[in-house]
Amino acid sequence: QVQLVESGGGLVQAGGSLRLSCAASGRTFSSYTLGWFRQAPGKEREFVAAITKSGSNTDYKDSVKGRFTISRDNAKNTVYLEMNSLKPEDTAVYSCAATSRVVPITQWREYRYWGQGTQVTVSS
Questions:
Q1: Can you spell out the DSSP letters for 17-75?
Q2: pLDDT given for residue 22 in this prediction
């Protein structure tokens, strides 16, 4: 079992940057593919980025490619989401999640473990 805790959210102006972190408990962190998802008010949860166990493969939502970078440090049991050139439409609650699947997974239903989320607000 894995427990996930996000941090790093906040209020930023358009064009700014934030770095989200997701710290995991448990000794099996490196066994999981990890993903970041977001949900804006009144909208469905959507995939943002995912990274495989070793970090060798990643996948991104088209609208964040070139702006967001997912990475992980298995020694620190932490996954990161570096967000640059933020836009107001990036405003949402961002959550990290873990799945035992071996490839980057975009479907949130495939993820078993979830954090509580962190709010990101981008002002125009």
A1: -EEEEEEE-STTGGGSEEEEEEE-TTS--EEEEEE-TTS--EEE-GGGTTTEEEEEETT
A2: 98
DSSP state of 94: E
CA 77 to chain centre: 14
pLDDT band at 54 (very low <50, low <70, confident <90, very high): very high
Q: Cβ distance 121 to 20 under 8 Å?
A: no
What backbone phi and psi angles, to 5 degrees, belong to 10? 165, -165
pLDDT higher than threshold 90 for residue 27:
no
**Residues 9 and 18: beta-carbon distance below 8 Å:** yes
**pLDDT of 3 over the 90 cut:** yes
**Residue with tokens 């770095």, as numbered in its chain:** 19
Please provide residue 122's backbone torsions phi and psi, each rounded to the nearest 5 degrees.
Answer: -115, 120
Sequence-separated (6 or more) residues with CB below 8 Å from residue 74:
29, 30, 53, 54, 55
